Amino acid sequence: MQKNNLDDMDRRILQVLSKDGRASMQEVGRQVGLSPSPCWQRIKRMEEAGVIQGYGARIDLTELGYGDGLIVMLTLEHHSDEILDMFERVLAEIPEVMEAYLVSGEYDYCLRLAVKDTRDYERLLREKLYKIPGLRHSVSSFVLRQLKAASVPL
Question: For the domain 61-142, what is the CATH code?
């Protein structure tokens, strides 16, 4: 199933689930105008096709002690497959890295980090990020306010 194989009903179901992944079949069906059984069948089909990749909770990181967020742009010294693979494996092991993207343009990677405070960020830089072999340059920006959270562009 590809995105262009989704009909309007599938898209409405995805909008409901993107706002509340715990909504019951009855609630999803009520919001989109379907009975629970065909609603469940559509959701199951989208799960099996990989359109729906999973369900999760939105967590307020400040409640867990992570008061600061950062966007970090990184550049590597070299771009061999071996270096890129090693770098990505190391990033995957750093819990403070919330998201990581290989990007085009001036930098190689864009990361979203969660840290407790500026001292915690300094620790993360010294103990983890700056110890990754092949890292040439980084630019960090603290997130002042989140204006929009992830949503589905349907």
Answer: 3.30.70.920
